[in-house]
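For concreteness, we quote verbatim a single protein encoded this way:
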Amino acid sequence: MIKRHQQSTIPRVPVSLDVSLTGKCNLHCQYCFYADAMATLDDLPTDSWRAFFAEAGAVGVRRLTLSGGEVFTRSDLFTLVDSVIENGMRYSTLTNGTLISEVTVASFNAGKRRRRLDSIQVSIDGSSSAIHDLSRPPASFERALRGLRLLKANDLPVTARVTINRHNVHDLPNIARLLLDDIGLQSFSTNSADLFGSARCQGQNVLLSPEEWRIAVRTTAELARNYPGRITAAAGPLSFAEDAARIESALASGAAGLPGRGTLSACGGVFSKMAILHNGAIVPCNMLPTMVMGKIGFSPLDDVWLNGREINILRERYETPITSIAGCSDCRYAGFCTGGCPAVVYGLYGRLDAIDPGNCYKKYREESHVPL
């Protein structure tokens, strides 16, 4: 149950939902967070999704992000998109780009699909096949790039996501030139490979070492300065670089902290959205697939949103002081800290009362002597 002081900060229903329509994928990438036991679960049939979209629209959900697996492996994808639209919602899609064709573009142009589409995000992890395909199956790059260019040429709202990893950390300037200068995207976003899914088995191949993390932080900060407003991040090295710059500015002015910090408050997603796995399980986040709170068709969406035990545990983390975390009690930067992504923390430690070491400003300053 939501605490009284939290009620005013949480809408009566989630504003948006991350919906994984399938566990199937035509690729097998080395860092995919969805490539684990979830992929053995059955996909829900068309009618179950249509019924759920009717429920989501009726209670007031505004937006859905449709993904997988690989969303374009579903032959009924555009039937489901039409159902989203019929129920008054907008949508985005996440894709590896390799299955996009002229037929795909024509399908997006039918009916109201283009008008209700917010974005199509294509994963690009290198400026060439020699880099991109190191963490993905052979020939992935050319197919993904063709799909990306096709979407851009047809004026669909396309963007890209670059997952920074051991293979591409030195290729980031070339990737930026490809996406922004050559293809002409308005912007692209970045994050980094973490210890989820297939990275649990292949992490030594893809996860950034501490030195590579520092290189990624400095490189993305420089690229963001060179391309103002065109490279974004909600997590990963660039997000950390931007946060570290704010901390350094506040420290220079004599501040002991920043507003809204000093607790495990990094994830704001649990106050506006939650996720649905491809078997219909309702979870706080698709990177926390074991925290099942119910199942669509059986559990009312609005009730799970307000009263789901797991999502409220994540909300209550906002009340946990950084100084109560082991190893952080005497940290001079505690007033600037938010603890990092709870899914990363849970993946590392199997619990939530810890911080993500990759987002520790103290650790970064102790190990790095090069300013941002």
Notes: Strands lie at 16-20, 63-67, 90-95, 117-123, 158-164, 188-192, 231-233, 273-276, 281-283, 294-295. The chain has a mean pLDDT of 91.
